[in-house]
Amino acid sequence: MLYKKKRPWDSIPSSEITPESVYLNRRQFMGASAAFAAGAALLPGSAAASIRRLRGQQEPEVGEVTYGEHLREDLNSYQDVTTYNNFYEFGTDKRDPARNSGDFTTEPWTVEVEGEVHKPGTYSVEDLAPANLTEDRIYRLRCVEAWSMVIPWRGVGLREIISRVEPTANAKYVAFETALRPAEMPGVRRPVLDWPYREGLRIDEAANELAFMATGLYGQDDLPNQNGAPLRLVVPWKYGFKNIKSIVKISFVEEQPYTTWQASAPHEYGFYANVNPNVDHPRWSQARERLLPFGRRETDMFNGYAEQVAHMYAGMDLARWY
Ligand SMILES: Nc1nc2c(c(=O)[nH]1)N[C@H]1C(S)=C(S)[C@@H](COP(=O)(O)O)O[C@H]1N2
Ligand SMILES: [Mo]
User: Fold this and answer.
1) Which of the listed residues 147, 217, 241, 264 should we mutate to test ligand 1's pocket, taking the one with most ligand atoms within 8 A of CB?
2) pTM of this prediction?
3) Does ligand 1 lie within 6 Å of residue 147's CB atom?
4) What digits encode the pLDDT tens for the residues 270-303?
């Protein structure tokens, strides 16, 4: 689906995304891995070739990639997106999710929708994210650990899912829960976090035009397991940990829900967790970030999406958010 007009999430100039990287044309990133090409373009040819060998860079098997002709963003490579992950259920090393999630069963998959909704029940992925509503969106991902990527997702607007299940007037928040399967998830056999992984949004945040439920990436219909197959939240103005993976339950509730990271370290990880360069993590600065694999950049308020989301936080104390 080719974008007919420029949409809000397309509005970040590539000069802001990676000041130090080259401007890639669509053809280049259709076939190759753009972030790698971007990094490589800064290096002499022989160095680029040896880094490519070292990194075992592969051509992503992308289908018809339809991001819109006007987009000129340098994506992170398929390799970066699928081998440098946080998914603690499969281990805490960045390489663990890719290494340990191969046996994770994502078919069949059902999602329980419960609480303050007119249409509670057990839904399939296809019920919640039907193919005819699927679109591609390129978003920045900014981890609270101060690294970032630019990722091309495929999926549906979260508001489409919300409108299908029809929340009641009492629904003030949405809570999400990840699958918990010790037999398939080696990481949950240790009490690293309070499993199952849980996250939540205020209902207006969930209905914001940017909130997205990914079912695929890089022009492919399915997500790799390490990225949260088969269904994973993407809220690009918030720190990465809000992007809960492999969702099995969605609850509409009246009170602000329990979230795993807030419970584990309340003064380090807040419920809102909006990207904010002015509020440091107690143990490190949030002013800048490492744009993988080779970049550095200033962190933007709301990760660059202030225009679409700042209005939701009018009157709240910015300095108090973690
Ligand atoms: N269930 C679950 N979801 C999760 C995590 C996790 O450990 N478990 N890690 C979060 C963090 S900290 C980040 S930065 C993103 C990383 O997403 P990616 O690996 O697809 O880039 O997933 C988030 N979602
Ligand atoms: Mo993260």
Assistant:
1) 241
2) 0.83
3) no
4) 999 999 999 999 999 999 999 999 899 999 999 9
Distance in Å, CA 149 to ligand 2 centroid: 11
Which residue of 81, 87, 153, 226 sits with most ligand 1 atoms within 8 Å of its CB, as the best mutation to test the pocket? 87
Cis check: omega of the bond before 108, within 30 degrees of 0: yes
CA dihedral in degrees (301, 307, 312, 317; nearest 10)?
30
Look at residue 47 and tell me whether its pLDDT is greater than 70: no
CB 171 within 8 A of CB 252: yes
pLDDT band at 321 (very low <50, low <70, confident <90, very high): low
The SS3 call for residue 179 is coil
Catalogue all structural domains in the chain, each as residue range(s) with its CATH number: 12-304 (3.90.420.10)
Name the closest-CA residue to atom 12, ligand 1.
Answer: 241
> What is the chain's mean pLDDT, rounded?
83
